[in-house]
Amino acid sequence: MIQEIKARILAGGDLTEDEALELLIRGDRAELYEAAHEVTEHFLGNAFDTCSIINAKSGNCPEDCKWCAQSGHYATSAERYALVSPSECVAQARYNHKQGIGRFSLVASGRRQTDREIDLISISYRAIKRAEPSLKCCASLGLLNQGQLQKLFDSGVTTYHCNMETAPSYFAELCTTHTQQDKEATLQAARQVGMRICCGGIIGMGESLQQRVELAFYLKRLGSESIPINILQPIEGTPLGHSTPLTEDEVLSAIAVFRLVNPRAFLRFSGGRAQLSPETQRRAIYIGINSAITGDLLTTIGRQAREDMAMIAECGKENRPVDWEVQYDH
To answer: Can you say whether residue 194 is alpha, beta or left, with left for phi > 0 and alpha for psi between -120 and 50 degrees?
Structure first.
Protein backbone atom coordinates (compact mmCIF):
# COMPACT_ATOMS: atom_id res chain seq x y z
CA MET A 1 0.00 0.00 0.00
CA ILE A 2 2.72 2.48 0.97
CA GLN A 3 4.71 1.87 -2.19
CA GLU A 4 1.67 2.41 -4.41
CA ILE A 5 0.81 5.65 -2.59
CA LYS A 6 4.40 6.89 -2.84
CA ALA A 7 4.52 6.21 -6.58
CA ARG A 8 1.23 8.03 -7.05
CA ILE A 9 2.46 11.11 -5.15
CA LEU A 10 5.79 11.17 -7.01
CA ALA A 11 3.80 11.15 -10.26
CA GLY A 12 1.85 14.21 -9.13
CA GLY A 13 -1.16 12.49 -7.58
CA ASP A 14 -2.61 12.50 -4.07
CA LEU A 15 -3.54 10.08 -1.36
CA THR A 16 -6.99 10.04 0.23
CA GLU A 17 -7.88 10.79 3.86
CA ASP A 18 -8.80 7.13 4.35
CA GLU A 19 -5.41 6.05 3.05
CA ALA A 20 -3.59 8.53 5.28
CA LEU A 21 -5.50 7.31 8.34
CA GLU A 22 -4.71 3.70 7.44
CA LEU A 23 -1.01 4.60 7.30
CA LEU A 24 -1.19 6.14 10.77
CA ILE A 25 -3.03 3.19 12.25
CA ARG A 26 -1.53 0.17 10.53
CA GLY A 27 1.25 1.32 8.22
CA ASP A 28 4.73 -0.16 8.51
CA ARG A 29 6.72 2.58 10.22
CA ALA A 30 10.02 1.96 8.40
CA GLU A 31 8.30 1.95 4.99
CA LEU A 32 6.24 5.02 5.87
CA TYR A 33 9.29 7.01 6.96
CA GLU A 34 11.28 6.01 3.88
CA ALA A 35 8.42 6.92 1.55
CA ALA A 36 8.09 10.36 3.16
CA HIS A 37 11.85 10.86 2.82
CA GLU A 38 11.76 10.05 -0.89
CA VAL A 39 8.84 12.42 -1.45
CA THR A 40 10.68 15.23 0.37
CA GLU A 41 13.85 14.68 -1.65
CA HIS A 42 11.94 14.52 -4.93
CA PHE A 43 9.96 17.74 -4.55
CA LEU A 44 12.19 19.87 -2.32
CA GLY A 45 15.71 18.48 -2.52
CA ASN A 46 18.02 19.31 0.38
CA ALA A 47 16.78 22.85 1.04
CA PHE A 48 16.28 23.79 4.70
CA ASP A 49 14.60 27.07 5.66
CA THR A 50 15.39 28.64 9.06
CA CYS A 51 13.59 31.42 10.89
CA SER A 52 13.80 33.14 14.24
CA ILE A 53 11.03 34.86 16.18
CA ILE A 54 10.71 37.24 19.09
CA ASN A 55 7.67 37.83 21.26
CA ALA A 56 7.05 41.50 20.50
CA LYS A 57 4.06 41.72 22.85
CA SER A 58 3.29 39.18 25.55
CA GLY A 59 0.38 38.08 27.74
CA ASN A 60 -3.04 39.56 28.57
CA CYS A 61 -4.63 37.84 25.58
CA PRO A 62 -8.47 37.87 25.66
CA GLU A 63 -8.74 34.59 23.70
CA ASP A 64 -9.44 31.33 25.55
CA CYS A 65 -7.19 28.93 23.57
CA LYS A 66 -6.82 25.98 25.96
CA TRP A 67 -3.16 25.30 25.08
CA CYS A 68 -1.81 28.83 25.49
CA ALA A 69 0.07 30.29 28.44
CA GLN A 70 -0.60 33.85 27.24
CA SER A 71 -4.37 33.60 27.56
CA GLY A 72 -5.72 35.95 30.20
CA HIS A 73 -8.27 33.27 31.12
CA TYR A 74 -5.66 31.09 32.86
CA ALA A 75 -3.21 31.57 35.71
CA THR A 76 0.23 30.92 34.23
CA SER A 77 3.69 32.38 34.65
CA ALA A 78 3.76 33.97 31.18
CA GLU A 79 5.36 37.40 30.99
CA ARG A 80 3.18 40.41 30.29
CA TYR A 81 4.50 43.44 28.41
CA ALA A 82 3.54 45.87 25.65
CA LEU A 83 5.23 46.21 22.27
CA VAL A 84 9.01 46.17 22.36
CA SER A 85 10.91 49.05 20.78
CA PRO A 86 12.12 49.15 17.17
CA SER A 87 15.73 49.26 18.41
CA GLU A 88 15.24 46.01 20.34
CA CYS A 89 13.60 44.36 17.31
CA VAL A 90 16.52 45.40 15.11
CA ALA A 91 19.08 44.13 17.63
CA GLN A 92 17.37 40.74 17.81
CA ALA A 93 17.03 40.51 14.04
CA ARG A 94 20.68 41.37 13.41
CA TYR A 95 21.90 39.00 16.09
CA ASN A 96 20.00 36.02 14.70
CA HIS A 97 20.79 36.83 11.07
CA LYS A 98 24.49 36.70 11.94
CA GLN A 99 23.92 33.12 13.13
CA GLY A 100 22.93 32.22 9.57
CA ILE A 101 19.14 32.40 10.05
CA GLY A 102 17.36 33.60 6.93
CA ARG A 103 13.98 34.75 8.26
CA PHE A 104 12.79 36.87 11.15
CA SER A 105 9.29 37.31 12.58
CA LEU A 106 7.65 39.48 15.20
CA VAL A 107 4.95 37.63 17.15
CA ALA A 108 2.39 39.46 19.28
CA SER A 109 -0.25 38.19 21.68
CA GLY A 110 -3.89 39.17 21.36
CA ARG A 111 -6.80 38.56 19.04
CA ARG A 112 -5.63 41.39 16.78
CA GLN A 113 -3.48 44.50 16.88
CA THR A 114 -4.78 48.07 16.81
CA ASP A 115 -4.00 50.38 13.90
CA ARG A 116 -1.62 52.27 16.19
CA GLU A 117 0.20 49.05 17.07
CA ILE A 118 0.49 48.11 13.38
CA ASP A 119 1.99 51.53 12.68
CA LEU A 120 4.60 50.95 15.40
CA ILE A 121 5.30 47.43 14.21
CA SER A 122 5.71 48.71 10.64
CA ILE A 123 8.36 51.14 11.88
CA SER A 124 10.21 48.20 13.40
CA TYR A 125 10.09 46.21 10.15
CA ARG A 126 11.33 49.16 8.10
CA ALA A 127 14.23 49.55 10.52
CA ILE A 128 15.01 45.83 10.29
CA LYS A 129 15.06 45.93 6.47
CA ARG A 130 17.36 48.96 6.52
CA ALA A 131 19.74 47.17 8.88
CA GLU A 132 19.56 43.74 7.20
CA PRO A 133 18.26 44.09 3.62
CA SER A 134 18.68 40.39 2.78
CA LEU A 135 16.75 39.16 5.84
CA LYS A 136 13.29 37.87 4.90
CA CYS A 137 10.61 39.29 7.22
CA CYS A 138 7.53 37.43 8.44
CA ALA A 139 4.78 38.40 10.91
CA SER A 140 2.40 36.65 13.31
CA LEU A 141 0.08 39.28 14.74
CA GLY A 142 -3.38 37.73 14.96
CA LEU A 143 -6.50 38.50 13.00
CA LEU A 144 -5.65 41.52 10.83
CA ASN A 145 -7.59 43.28 8.10
CA GLN A 146 -6.38 43.94 4.57
CA GLY A 147 -5.40 47.54 5.27
CA GLN A 148 -3.22 46.51 8.20
CA LEU A 149 -1.63 43.72 6.18
CA GLN A 150 -0.93 46.15 3.34
CA LYS A 151 1.00 48.38 5.76
CA LEU A 152 3.08 45.41 6.86
CA PHE A 153 3.72 44.32 3.28
CA ASP A 154 4.81 47.84 2.37
CA SER A 155 7.21 47.69 5.35
CA GLY A 156 8.95 44.56 4.04
CA VAL A 157 6.88 41.67 5.42
CA THR A 158 6.52 38.98 2.74
CA THR A 159 5.07 36.05 4.74
CA TYR A 160 2.15 36.04 7.18
CA HIS A 161 1.74 33.36 9.83
CA CYS A 162 -1.59 32.28 11.31
CA ASN A 163 -2.00 28.69 12.52
CA MET A 164 -5.26 26.80 12.20
CA GLU A 165 -4.08 24.82 15.27
CA THR A 166 -6.18 21.67 14.84
CA ALA A 167 -8.80 19.91 12.73
CA PRO A 168 -11.99 21.86 11.93
CA SER A 169 -14.04 19.19 13.70
CA TYR A 170 -12.07 19.74 16.93
CA PHE A 171 -11.26 23.46 17.02
CA ALA A 172 -14.39 24.55 18.90
CA GLU A 173 -13.45 22.18 21.74
CA LEU A 174 -10.22 24.11 22.25
CA CYS A 175 -11.17 27.72 21.54
CA THR A 176 -14.52 29.54 21.68
CA THR A 177 -13.52 33.20 21.26
CA HIS A 178 -12.66 33.07 17.54
CA THR A 179 -13.11 30.65 14.67
CA GLN A 180 -11.01 29.12 11.94
CA GLN A 181 -13.12 31.11 9.49
CA ASP A 182 -11.74 34.27 11.14
CA LYS A 183 -8.24 32.93 10.55
CA GLU A 184 -9.01 32.01 6.94
CA ALA A 185 -10.21 35.57 6.29
CA THR A 186 -6.88 36.92 7.57
CA LEU A 187 -4.89 34.53 5.38
CA GLN A 188 -6.98 35.42 2.35
CA ALA A 189 -6.38 39.13 2.99
CA ALA A 190 -2.65 38.48 3.39
CA ARG A 191 -2.55 36.76 0.01
CA GLN A 192 -4.50 39.61 -1.57
CA VAL A 193 -1.79 42.10 -0.60
CA GLY A 194 0.93 39.83 -1.99
CA MET A 195 2.11 37.86 1.03
CA ARG A 196 2.84 34.15 1.20
CA ILE A 197 1.31 31.98 3.89
CA CYS A 198 2.73 30.09 6.86
CA CYS A 199 -0.03 28.04 8.49
CA GLY A 200 0.16 24.89 10.60
CA GLY A 201 -1.00 23.53 13.92
CA ILE A 202 -0.35 21.66 17.13
CA ILE A 203 -0.45 17.90 17.54
CA GLY A 204 -1.03 16.14 20.85
CA MET A 205 -3.97 18.23 22.13
CA GLY A 206 -6.29 15.26 22.52
CA GLU A 207 -7.27 15.03 18.87
CA SER A 208 -7.97 11.63 17.35
CA LEU A 209 -5.77 10.16 14.63
CA GLN A 210 -8.57 10.90 12.18
CA GLN A 211 -8.54 14.55 13.27
CA ARG A 212 -4.75 14.66 12.87
CA VAL A 213 -5.23 13.53 9.28
CA GLU A 214 -8.08 16.02 8.89
CA LEU A 215 -5.71 18.85 9.86
CA ALA A 216 -3.11 17.74 7.31
CA PHE A 217 -5.70 17.83 4.52
CA TYR A 218 -7.17 21.13 5.75
CA LEU A 219 -3.75 22.76 5.44
CA LYS A 220 -3.39 21.25 1.96
CA ARG A 221 -6.71 22.80 0.91
CA LEU A 222 -5.54 26.16 2.24
CA GLY A 223 -2.38 25.89 0.13
CA SER A 224 -0.04 26.58 3.02
CA GLU A 225 3.51 26.93 1.68
CA SER A 226 5.03 26.58 5.16
CA ILE A 227 3.48 24.28 7.77
CA PRO A 228 4.69 24.69 11.37
CA ILE A 229 4.27 21.42 13.27
CA ASN A 230 4.05 22.20 16.97
CA ILE A 231 4.07 19.45 19.59
CA LEU A 232 1.95 20.29 22.61
CA GLN A 233 4.07 21.14 25.60
CA PRO A 234 1.60 21.02 28.51
CA ILE A 235 1.70 24.28 30.48
CA GLU A 236 0.67 24.34 34.12
CA GLY A 237 -2.44 26.45 34.60
CA THR A 238 -3.94 25.83 31.17
CA PRO A 239 -6.77 23.32 30.58
CA LEU A 240 -4.30 21.11 28.67
CA GLY A 241 -1.66 21.37 31.38
CA HIS A 242 -1.84 17.70 32.29
CA SER A 243 -2.12 16.21 28.81
CA THR A 244 -0.23 13.00 28.12
CA PRO A 245 2.73 13.75 25.82
CA LEU A 246 2.90 12.04 22.44
CA THR A 247 5.46 9.30 21.98
CA GLU A 248 8.33 9.98 19.60
CA ASP A 249 6.93 7.42 17.14
CA GLU A 250 3.57 9.22 17.18
CA VAL A 251 5.33 12.47 16.31
CA LEU A 252 7.41 10.89 13.54
CA SER A 253 4.38 9.14 12.05
CA ALA A 254 2.45 12.41 12.01
CA ILE A 255 5.34 14.17 10.26
CA ALA A 256 5.49 11.42 7.64
CA VAL A 257 1.77 11.63 6.90
CA PHE A 258 1.84 15.45 6.81
CA ARG A 259 4.64 15.14 4.24
CA LEU A 260 2.73 12.70 2.03
CA VAL A 261 -0.37 14.90 2.18
CA ASN A 262 1.62 18.12 1.55
CA PRO A 263 4.54 16.99 -0.66
CA ARG A 264 5.62 20.50 -1.73
CA ALA A 265 5.20 22.35 1.58
CA PHE A 266 7.98 23.18 4.00
CA LEU A 267 7.29 21.32 7.25
CA ARG A 268 8.65 23.45 10.07
CA PHE A 269 9.94 22.31 13.45
CA SER A 270 8.23 24.69 15.87
CA GLY A 271 7.13 24.71 19.50
CA GLY A 272 7.67 21.62 21.62
CA ARG A 273 10.44 19.97 19.63
CA ALA A 274 12.80 20.23 22.62
CA GLN A 275 10.83 17.30 24.03
CA LEU A 276 12.36 15.10 21.33
CA SER A 277 15.77 13.50 21.64
CA PRO A 278 18.50 14.74 19.27
CA GLU A 279 18.34 11.42 17.42
CA THR A 280 14.57 11.72 16.94
CA GLN A 281 14.99 15.27 15.66
CA ARG A 282 17.47 13.99 13.08
CA ARG A 283 15.06 11.23 12.06
CA ALA A 284 12.31 13.84 11.69
CA ILE A 285 14.53 15.83 9.33
CA TYR A 286 15.26 12.67 7.33
CA ILE A 287 11.53 11.91 7.12
CA GLY A 288 10.23 15.30 6.07
CA ILE A 289 11.05 18.28 8.33
CA ASN A 290 12.87 20.81 6.16
CA SER A 291 12.50 24.06 8.05
CA ALA A 292 12.69 25.18 11.65
CA ILE A 293 12.23 28.01 14.10
CA THR A 294 15.58 28.46 15.76
CA GLY A 295 17.81 31.20 17.16
CA ASP A 296 18.76 32.81 20.45
CA LEU A 297 17.66 35.83 22.39
CA LEU A 298 20.43 38.30 23.19
CA THR A 299 20.09 37.51 26.88
CA THR A 300 20.67 33.76 26.47
CA ILE A 301 23.73 31.69 25.77
CA GLY A 302 23.98 31.31 21.99
CA ARG A 303 23.65 27.55 21.76
CA GLN A 304 20.46 26.69 19.92
CA ALA A 305 21.32 28.32 16.61
CA ARG A 306 24.81 26.80 16.49
CA GLU A 307 23.53 23.36 17.44
CA ASP A 308 20.72 23.53 14.90
CA MET A 309 23.04 24.63 12.10
CA ALA A 310 25.32 21.71 12.91
CA MET A 311 22.39 19.28 12.95
CA ILE A 312 21.05 20.61 9.64
CA ALA A 313 24.46 20.12 8.02
CA GLU A 314 24.89 16.65 9.54
CA CYS A 315 21.55 15.66 8.01
CA GLY A 316 22.78 16.67 4.55
CA LYS A 317 20.57 19.74 4.29
CA GLU A 318 21.51 23.17 2.99
CA ASN A 319 20.40 26.11 5.13
CA ARG A 320 19.13 28.86 2.86
CA PRO A 321 16.12 31.18 2.81
CA VAL A 322 13.64 29.71 0.37
CA ASP A 323 11.81 31.40 -2.47
CA TRP A 324 8.42 29.65 -2.21
CA GLU A 325 7.50 30.36 -5.82
CA VAL A 326 10.65 28.69 -7.13
CA GLN A 327 9.87 25.64 -5.04
CA TYR A 328 6.29 25.52 -6.26
CA ASP A 329 7.46 25.70 -9.89
CA HIS A 330 9.45 22.45 -9.39
So the answer is: left
Counting Cα atoms < 13 Å in the Cβ hemisphere of 70 gives: 17
63, 178 contact by CB (below 8 A): yes
Q: Does pLDDT of 285 surpass 80?
A: yes
The 3-state secondary structure of 100-143 reads: CCCEEEEEECCCCCCHHHHHHHHHHHHHHHHHCCCCEEEEECCC
Give the model confidence (pLDDT) of 36-85 as tens digits.
999 999 999 999 999 999 999 887 788 899 998 888 788 777 788 889 99
The model carries a pTM of: 0.94
| Residue 84 DSSP code | P
When pLDDT is cut at 50, 70 and 90, the band that residue 243 belongs to is very high
DSSP 3-state of 71: strand
Mean pLDDT score, 276-287? 97
Query: Mind listing the domains of the chain with CATH numbers?
Result: 16-328 (3.20.20.70)
Is the pLDDT reported for residue 266 higher than 90?
yes
Q: What's the per-residue H, E or C state across 228-288?
A: EEEECCCCCCCCCCCCCCCCHHHHHHHHHHHHHHCCCCEEEECCCHHHCCHHHHHHHHHHC
**Cα separation values, 31 from 245, 247, 280, Å:** 25, 19, 17
| 291: helix, strand or coil | strand
How many C-beta atoms lie closer than 10 Å to residue 97's C-beta? 20
Contact of 62 with 83, CB cutoff 8 Å: no
Average pLDDT of the chain, as a whole number: 93
